[in-house]
Specification:
Structural class: alpha/beta
Shape: elongated
Oligomer: single chain
Largest sheet: 9 strands, mixed
Distance between the termini: 11 Å
Bound molecules: adenosine-5'-diphosphate
CATH class of the largest domain: Alpha Beta
CATH architecture of the largest domain: 3-Layer(aba) Sandwich
Length: 481
C-alpha cells in the first residue's frame, strides 16, 4: 500500500491550542494514522501559543497579501506533530481565546480570519508550496469549512477533500456582506453554494463541496439527517447521505490509564478492581461526601449547557437522594445551573458534592472514584467522558443519543445474561426515563457480581484511536485512488 499524504486543516490541535474536542481529535489522529502509513501535516493558525511552541520553524511559503497583511507558512514539528503554521500576525497574534476577545465577544473579523486560513490550506493543496503535494485535504469544522469551497471554485486538478463536523451546533455564520472579500465568485452565494438562510455558512460550504463528510459517531451521522437534529442542515445532509459517514473518536489511553494515572490515590486495572475503593474514599473526602464505601456514587463531569441535559438531573434529584445515592459533580457553564447545583450541595451536605470550574485532576479522580458516570445529553456527537468512564470502571449511565448510543452496551436482560453489558442507556432524554434509569442503576449496583462484571467489560473495551484511525485510513484510500 502506498503512503498517503494528508493535509489537515484544524483551528485547534492538542496540546498546542484547545477549546474543545476538535483539538483532541486533531492532536491524536495523526499519531494513530502513522501506524496506517498515512502521513498527516496539520495547518493551524499562528495563535501566540502555537508560535511559541515552534521557535525554530522554517518558512515554507510567503504570502504578500493575505486579507490585508503579509503572511508566512512555517513548517515545523511540535509535540510529535508535523505542522504548518499560518503566521499572519494581523489575523492571529492576539491574546486569549482563538475566537473571542478579552470582553468575551467574537472577534469582529472572524469571517476573514478563517477565510484566510481556509484559502491558504486550499492553496497548499493546489500545489503552492514547493516540495509538498498532499493526496487529499481533511478540513475540520466551520473554521476550515471554506477549504472545499475554495478547492471547488479553483477548478482544475485539485486533490479531493473530506470535512469532519465535530458538532453541528457551531456553524460559522456570517452576514452576506462579507462575501465580496472572500475571493469566491458572486454566484457562490446560492443555496447550492455557500449561502445559508441569508448568511454565508462556513460549515455549510464544507458540507456542500467536500467529497466526503464525516462526523464523530455513526448514530450522530444518521441523526443529523433529521429535522430534529440537523440544525437546518438536514436537507443538505440527506441529499449527500451517500458520502456521509460516522467514525467514533477515541481517547488517549496513555493519558487516561487507571494503572498509571498520577492524579488518583490508588492505581488499579480490570483484574484489581478492589484497589479502586481507595479512590472512592478520596473522592468522598474531597467533595465533602459521607465516607461510605457502599454508597452508589454518581459522577458528572460536564459543560453545563442545554446540550448536556443536566437540568433533567435537577428534576430527579429528590429521587436520586431517596435511593441513598451520592452525587459527585464537576462542571462549569450556565450560571443558573451552576447556582442550582451549588445550592443543592449546600442543602444536602454529605450527599451532593459540587465543584464549579474546570479541573483536570478532579476529572480523573471522579472517573476513578465514582461508581457510575451520568451523561444525560440531549444530543451528543460522540462524547468523551463516557469513553473515559468505561476505561476507569465508572459504569456509564447515558442518554441513547449520538455517540453515547454507539459506545455503551445497555444492561438489558440478554446483555446481562451474555455477560457483555457495559452500562445503562435511557431514551428519550427526559426526566422520567432518567429517573427509571437511575432506579435501574441502583438495583444493578446492589448485585455486586453483575456490577463488577460490567465494570470489567467496560475496562477491557478498546476505546483507543486504533480502530478509528483504521477507518479514517480506509476512507482516505478510497478517496485518493
Ligand atoms: P464536549 O466536548 O461537548 O464538552 P466531550 O464529552 O466530548 O464533551 O468532552 C469533554 C471533555 O472535557 C472530557 O475529556 C471531560 O473530561 C472534559 N471536561 C468537561 N468538563 C470539565 C471540567 N469542568 N473540568 C475538567 N474537565 C472537563
Amino acid at each position: 500500500m502506498a503512503r498517503i499524504r494528508v493535509l489537515a486543516a484544524a483551528s485547534e490541535v492538542y496540546p498546542l491550542v484547545k477549546t474543545g474536542g476538535l483539538a483532541d481529535v486533531a492532536g491524536a489522529l495523526p499519531k494513530a494514522l502513522a501506524a496506517e502509513d498515512v502521513a498527516v501535516t496539520t495547518l493551524v493558525p499562528g495563535y501566540p501559543a502555537v508560535m511559541q511552541a515552534l521557535p525554530n520553524a522554517e518558512t515554507a511559503l510567503s504570502l504578500d497579501d493575505l486579507f490585508g497583511g503579509s503572511a508566512r507558512v512555517l513548517r515545523g514539528n511540535a509535540a510529535a506533530l508535523d505542522v504548518f503554521v499560518l503566521d499572519a500576525p494581523h489575523l492571529f497574534a492576539r491574546a486569549g481565546n482563538p475566537y473571542m476577545g478579552p470582553d468575551g465577544r467574537d472577534w469582529n473579523d472572524n469571517a476573514f480570519r478563517f477565510a484566510a486560513f481556509a484559502q491558504v490550506a486550499a492553496r497548499i493543496a493546489g500545489g503552492a508550496m514547493r516540495g509538498y503535494q498532499p493526496d487529499l485535504v481533511h478540513a475540520h469544522d466551520w473554521q476550515a469549512g471554506l477549504v472545499p469551497a475554495y478547492l471547488h471554485y479553483a477548478g482544475g486538478s485539485v486533490p479531493p477533500s473530506v470535512i469532519t463536523a465535530h458538532n453541528l451546533a457551531f456553524q460559522g455564520l456570517f452576514p452576506r456582506e462579507v462575501l465580496p472579500a472572500l475571493g469566491l465568485p458572486p454566484d457562490a452565494y446560492s443555496v447550492d453554494g455557500v449561502e445559508y438562510y441569508g448568511n454565508v455558512g462556513y460549515l455549510k460550504a464544507g458540507l456542500q463541496f467536500a467529497d466526503r463528510i464525516t462526523t464523530v459517531s455513526p448514530t450522530y451521522a444518521q441523526e443529523i439527517t433529521t429535522p430534529q437534529d440537523g440544525m437546518g442542515l438536514d436537507g443538505l445532509l440527506r441529499r449527500r447521505a451517500s458520502v456521509l459517514s460516522g467514525i467514533l473518536n477515541g481517547i488517549d489511553v496513555d493519558v487516561w490509564n487507571p494503572a498509571t494515572d498520577t492524579y488518583i490515590a490508588s492505581n488499579y486495572d480490570a483484574e484489581h478492581l478492589a484497589a479502586r475503593a481507595a479512590n472512592t474514599a478520596a473522592l468522598q473526602q474531597r467533595l465533602g461526601l459521607d465516607a461510605d464505601p457502599n454508597a452508589l456514587c454518581i459522577g458528572v463531569i460536564s459543560r453545563l449547557t442545554e446540550q448536556k441535559g443536566l437540568d433533567l438531573l435537577i428534576d430527579v434529584l429528590g429521587h436520586v437522594l431517596s435511593t441513598g445515592a451520592q452525587l459527585a459533580m464537576l462542571g462549569a457553564g450556565d450560571g443558573a445551573l451552576e447556582r442550582t447545583f451549588s445550592g443543592a450541595a449546600k442543602a444536602n451536605p454529605g450527599r451532593i458534592g459540587v465543584v464549579i470550574g474546570y479541573d483536570e485532576p478532579l476529572a480523573h479522580q471522579i472517573q476513578a472514584g465514582a461508581s457510575a458516570l451520568l451523561v444525560p445529553s440531549r444530543f451528543e456527537p460522540c462524547g468523551l467522558t463516557q469513553l473515559c468512564a468505561l476505561r476507569y470502571g465508572a459504569v456509564p449511565v447515558v442518554a441513547r443519543v449520538g455517540g453515547l448510543a454507539d459506545t455503551v452496551i445497555h444492561a438489558n436482560e440478554m446483555a446481562l445474561a451474555a455477560g457483555v453489558a457495559t452500562g445503562i442507556q435511557f431514551a428519550p432524554p427526559a426526566a422520567e426515563p432518567l429517573e427509571h434509569a437511575l432506579a435501574h442503576t441502583a438495583e444493578l449496583f446492589r448485585d455486586r457480581t453483575a456490577w463488577s462484571r460490567m465494570q470489567a467489560n467496560g475496562m477491557r473495551a478498546d476505546v483507543s484511536w486504533r480502530r478509528p484511525a483504521h477507518r479514517y485510513a480506509n476512507l482516505y484510500r478510497e478517496l485518493a485512488v
